[in-house]
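Table S7 (text form). Paired inputs.
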Amino acid sequence: MPAPGQPYLSGAMDATDPELFREVFGRFATGVAVITSAGSGGAGGMTANALCSLSLDPLLALVCFENRARTLPIVREAGRFAVNLLTAEQERLAGVFASKLPESEKLDGVAHRSEHGIPVIEGSLAWAACELEELIAGGDHTIAIGRVIAMGLGDGGPLLWYSGRYHALPPDSGP
């Protein structure tokens, strides 16, 4: 262990290496969500794990979009999006929405309903429909802040992303 006040560096490497950066933050387990939206040009969605609750007053959610994400123009045009938190049983959906399928095909065959004009995936662990408040540039990503206008809870255990793979909690670790 280092002396008090000294940083602990186990296997310190080049701090400018994007692959190491990806691996470092890949050690942070996150939930997995599908971000959906629908506008005049159609509906679409993408798999995401860079999201969080931002504020309780007002209720705000934050989602990060890669700048090249095909869902981002839909959200920008529609001014709304939904965060659909996936259950461990919905891993296949995570793959569909992470794929290069055309946006117009991603919701085909996926049970969903409309909440405030936004597709919400049936069977999700939880969901929040948001009005887009702000888009902020963040390097190769765009940070979206949405004001929550509706939300709900489902059942099941969460789908997790850790170290570059999907995982589920052990069966006895539920709420």
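Next pair, protein 2 of 2.
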Amino acid sequence: MLYYRQEDNPFTANVMSDKISSNVQQYYLFLSSSPAATFSLGKQVGERLEAGSILALIGELGCGKTLFTKGLCVGLGVPERYVTSPTFVFINEYLGRLPVFHIDLYRLNTIDEEFDIGILDYLAKADTGVIVVEWAEKILSLLPDDYLRVQFQVLSARRRQLALVGFGKKFGNLLRKLGDQ
């Protein structure tokens, strides 16, 4: 089961306080009762993404970031079997209706390590494709003003809360369309 609700900005007094109050355009909370629902939400988001999209995924280990990304890539036309966690290679690239650059920062501990893997070069590639960053809390200060933050919270073994926060104008329409379903 998947549903949303729009509320007064629940993020202003939260760990997500950077750039929040002045730049949030739209936000929704989705409750996922299964891995299939998390995948489906990712697919719905992927179907609506345009070139230049950057997604910042934040949440603890095992919360569903890679599963959401698989759905997102399927929504962009990438076969599911090609989408794997880039934890040990740092970056996977996929070709769908747009190029997808799937970055996993789990094993990186310093900004210097992130620069070493070329994070700024990949962020610059967002103009032509979609960037998905797992463990994005490590580079929030490097992100442009327009990006979609997806905050995962584990509620139980199968249930997750996903807070989608659109920074800048680009993601307001996408989140409104998701909410209208």
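Confidence is low (pLDDT under 50) at residues 1-21.
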